[in-house]
Amino acid sequence: MHEPDWGEIIPRLQIFYKGDPDRWLHMPIKFLGPYIAMHPILQAEEALQDITNIAVGTGSLKKEDIKEIMRELRSQANERTPRQRLSIRRDKAALAAMGIQVVEIKKNGTVSAR
Predict the structure, then answer these.
(1) Which of 33, 34, 66, 84 could serve as 80's disulfide partner, Cβ 3.0–4.6 Å?
(2) Bridge partners of 104?
């Protein structure tokens, strides 16, 4: 069995995963192994996403394929459609009309009460 080439492995991990480069030198092998194993898989996923983004962005796919991709991405991102956002606004207004305070926590952590 040959010794891993840490001079090649660690820079690749560092470029991909970022963070403190020193951590790779002190990480136990049982934790380091999964990072090494997942690296090519994650790179392939990123490449496929780039290809999809370019295909959608350039309009080189059929409209129904673009819609399906966008629907899947919204689902993965748990994003609401414009119609769902409008429905949420109506729900908030209805709750407020009943005297129920609506508190909204934004992605940045700020809180607003209505």
Answers:
(1) 84
(2) 112
Q: Which residues, including other chains, have CB under 8 Å from residue 81's CB and lie 6 or more apart? A: 74
What amino acid is encoded at 24 in this protein? Answer: W
Q: CB of 61 within 8 A of CB of 67?
A: no
What is the C-alpha separation between 19 and 31, in angstroms, rounded?
Answer: 15
Each residue's pLDDT tens digit, 60-103:
999 999 989 888 887 877 766 666 665 666 677 777 776 777 77
What does the block give as tokens for 14? Answer: 């560092």
Q: Which residues contact 88 (CB under 8 A, 6 or more apart)?
A: 80
Q: 10 Å Cβ neighbour count for 97?
A: 8
Pairing of β 111-113 and β 103-105: antiparallel
DSSP secondary structure letter of residue 1? -
